[in-house]
Write a structure and sequence with these properties.
By secondary structure, the protein is mainly alpha-helical. The chain has two domains: 298 residues, Amino acid/polyamine transporter I; 98 residues, no CATH class. It is 63% helix and 6% strand. Helix 3 packs antiparallel against helix 9 and helix 5 crosses helix 6.
């Protein structure tokens, strides 16, 4: 019997270079730039070192981004890191990462960003005692629904939010660097002090690299980028360049407006700079900008996070076969109904009494997989064996063969006489 190829669903390349840049910038910037500068200032010995750490962080991020660009252009896949780990270390490691990303990493990031948005939105308009939670729930539901409508709606929203975020940061930089105040008077000069509370470069780099984190999300949209061989690398390089420039300008503005000591002592460094220049109006504008930045990062996180779930779901039949056989126990009552004559199933089990397998798949990883075609009449003892060991079976083996071929894990097929 000849195995026919089963068509595999692929994602359409709908993201342009600008769309990709806006997603990466949105994921990376978020709300961290509004808090991290004060932490960096509190752990560096001078203005020069503080600025140098931000520059070094940009260079390290660029190196990592180029490595990911190589992976994403060679293997454009919605699974991203999950796919790379699966290819390098096998299904078990890949599945564990994808499961963790689905259940903890992305969901935790989404919840965190939503609550930050809720906190700052509540400063503008409170919705009662649970204001932050209400805002967080509304943001998650609306943005998830928006992305469910389609990629076009999600990317257009992301582009709009990213532009608003970048423009807002540029305005903050202009206010800090030019010293413009509400009444037209120049800002107070920097206090000139260069003796912060500690000097811990290792801790500083943790804060800086945390602020630069997120550019690896480009791997999850690599299969949807138009002209991906060129645009993925270009998007990553442009994104890191834009983010590095924004971070450097924001820190220069903060240093000029507040000085290193005031930055180190501040709990809301950007808000303090804006309040110094524009009074309480500046603090309100800062809350608006932080809310926009968190929504921008939230939308991008929802957009990229869904890709891993899609990739895991597309591989779920293989995952069930290798890793989660207990899930098939729920199907015992339905299994025999599915085993109609001609139905194709896969199994690790060979000894099925009178029912002999049709073919065996030899994989490069070792354990063979047996392919069966249900006969016109299943012997009674085989029926009992199937019900007892239903976790050993998964219906449909064309999909399995195609997945093994894609992963270069198929060593050969042999007919069993």
């Amino acid at each position: 019997m000849k195995l026919a190829a089963r068509p595999i669903i692929t994602l359409k390349p709908t993201l342009s270079l600008i769309d990709t840049i806006s997603i990466i910038v949105g994921v990376v910037v978020g709300a961290s730039i509004f808090q991290t500068p004060s932490l960096v200032a509190a752990n560096t010995g001078s203005v020069e070192i503080a600025l140098l750490t931000w520059g070094v962080g940009g260079v390290i991020s660029l190196i990592g981004a180029l490595c990911y660009a190589e992976l994403a252009t060679t293997y454009p896949h919605p699974g991203g890191t999950y796919y790379y780990l699966r290819r390098a270390f096998g299904s078990s490691i890949g599945f564990l990462f994808a499961w963790t990303r689905m259940s903890v990493i992305q969901t935790g990031s989404i919840a965190l960003l939503a609550f930050v948005f809720g906190d700052y939105a509540s400063q503008l308009w409170r919705l009662g005692g649970y204001s932050a939670s209400i805002y967080a729930a509304i943001a998650i539901v609306l943005l998830t629904g928006l992305n469910m409508l389609g990629v076009r709606q999600g990317k257009q929203t992301q582009n709009l939010l990213a532009v608003a975020q970048v423009v807002g940061l540029i305005i903050i930089c202009a206010i800090g660097l030019l010293g413009v105040s509400y009444n037209g008077a120049p800002t107070l000069p920097p206090d000139g002090a260069t003796n912060p509370t500690s000097n811990n470069l290792g801790l500083v780099m943790v804060f800086v690299l945390l602020s630069y984190g997120g550019w690896n999300e480009a791997a999850y949209i690599s299969a949807e980028v138009r002209d991906g061989k060129r645009n993925i690398a270009r998007a990553l390089i442009w994104s890191i360049a834009i983010i590095s420039a924004l971070y450097m300008l924001v820190n220069l503005a903060l240093i000029r407006g507040l000085g290193l000591t005031r930055m180190a002592a501040s709990q809301a460094v950007v808000a303090d700079l804006m309040r110094l220049n524009l009074g309480e109006t500046g603090a309100i504008l800062t809350s608006c900008l932080v809310a926009i930045a968190t929504v921008c990062s939230l939308n991008a996180t929802i957009l990229t996070g869904a890709r891993t779930n899609y990739a895991l779901g597309r591989d779920f039949s293989v995952v069930t076969l290798y890793l989660l056989p207990e899930l098939n126990l729920r199907l015992r009552s339905q299994l025999l109904e599915q085993l109609k004559p001609g139905t194709r199933i896969v199994s690790h089990a060979f000894d099925m009494g009178e029912w002999k397998p049709d073919r065996v798949v030899k994989t490069k990883r070792g354990n063979p997989i047996y392919l069966w075609v249900v006969p016109e009449e299943i012997p009674g003892n085989v029926r009992a064996n199937i019900l007892e060991n239903s976790s050993q079976f998964a219906p449909g083996y064309f999909h399995l063969i195609n997945r093994l071929r894609m992963n270069n894990d198929l060593q050969g097929l042999e007919d069993i006489k």
